[in-house]
TrEMBL record:
Keywords: Hydrolase, Metal-binding, Metalloprotease, Protease, Signal, Zinc. Its cofactor is Zn(2+). Pfam families: LysM, Peptidase_M48. The keyword Kinase does not apply. It comes from Sphingomonas lacunae. PANTHER family: M48 FAMILY METALLOPEPTIDASE, METALLOENDOPEPTIDASE OMA1. The lineage of its organism: Bacteria, Pseudomonadati, Pseudomonadota, Alphaproteobacteria, Sphingomonadales. This is M48 family metalloprotease. GO terms for biological process: proteolysis involved in protein catabolic process. PROSITE patterns: LYSM. The keyword Hydrolase applies.
Amino acid sequence: MGRGTVPVKTSLRLLGVTLAGSTALGLASQPLLAQSGTVRPFTQAEKNQGAQAHAQIMQEFGGEYAGPATAYVRTVGQGVAVQSGLSNNPNDFTVTLLNSPVNNAFALPGGFIYSTRQLLALMNNEAELAGVLAHELGHTAARHSQQRQRRATRNSILGVLATVLGGAIGDNGGLLGSLGGLLQNNAMQAAQMATLGFSRSQETQADDLGIRYISAAGYDPAALATVLASLDAQNSLDLRLSGQDAARNIPAWASTHPDPASRVRRATERARAMNVVNGRTNRDQFLNAVNNLLYADDPRQGVVEGRQFLHPDLRLGFSVPEGFRISNGTTAVSIGSANGQAQFTMGSFSGDLDAYVRQAFQTVVGQNQSNVQLGAINRTTVNGIPAAYATARATTQQGQVDLIIFAYAFDSSKAYHFAALAPAGRLSVFDAMFASVRRLTPAEASAIRPRRVSVVTVRRGDTVQSLASRMAYQDSQLERFLVLNALSSSAVLTPGQRVKIVTYAGN
């Protein structure tokens, strides 16, 4: 969550079905242009639509990353983009590396393609980067987002809420978004459509097209399968670290797709069928580009440490319940599990906490205020901070749900709030979280440091255990190191080999 005061109306996607904050690369297709070989170049209308949504994407995902890797990603992306048939001019494609700590990649109509820096850090060679971007280009070439938009606009807002109850609340990857803002305008809608899940056939098609594109660009076509395997490993690790059962919690990017193992097998088979000889991976060039890349949270937007969210600039912190996943975004912190979903964000504050609660509620519910009524506003104090909260109950096709707005006045001009959703009668799952909000001490704030990717060369005597011990984490160092480098637990390192570790900046 960023430093500046964000108007309450920009508390994004509460009760929505976005993938932001989860391992969200949905990568595979319909039997369409993959078979015909013909692609319709994108139109000026599609370029305009993408350009309108681009600003929203940049706001929601931390803007463009400021570092050498940005130009590298742009060059690789434009190089593979011209293989799609959407345009022969590399400059027609806007490829952006986002300053976001979530594993995500997506595309907008008109040649706008995105990867987060966190997903870049998970990759291990240039071919994998090309594969991820090519997959997203496959969605663009097949006009998958437009198909999703047409389906979404046929749904009412409460219909979307019902979908959330059946999906996001029961899906750890699903995060909350602004119910009121879901259909606000074309730019907002296009931005949200970019990060919603695709169908099985759409993902399969995008996989096939992505493999075709990177093969045509001279890359090893097996790279898409290996990055899919890394995504699956990272998601499983994230679930274990948050106390959840990976076997029972399907990530948002995979909830409507073939299971990860099947997708990896299928992508591997398709790559073999391409019969590419000596497809390049450019591993060294890639490692040079990601060396010193910011990893995980940017302290300027707050950091997630285990079950805690800590913001050194805003001097605030809170803890989430056991078994909940927590993800930090530019405008909000998202919290979720099978038992409920929540967001923590800030808003414009005039000093009237009751008015703040009502405004936050109106933002969440939007045009459905006649169907969802806010209850009485209650006042309390949390760790010396004035607070107020109110609840509402909504009836959907999936049953009743409860919504709560819990707000905190940090001073006369600064307030923050949770907006949380749970099945009716079960909001108490968040009680400990609401009670955990506190001010950080100066010492706590100054102790928060950024993490970065460091590429190191294996020396004689180094092992996976010894290098993992250098990871800037207090828990699961070995598991984190293995996933980051796509290594197995039995891996043996050789002198001269280059691997990634995560260190604190300045170390």
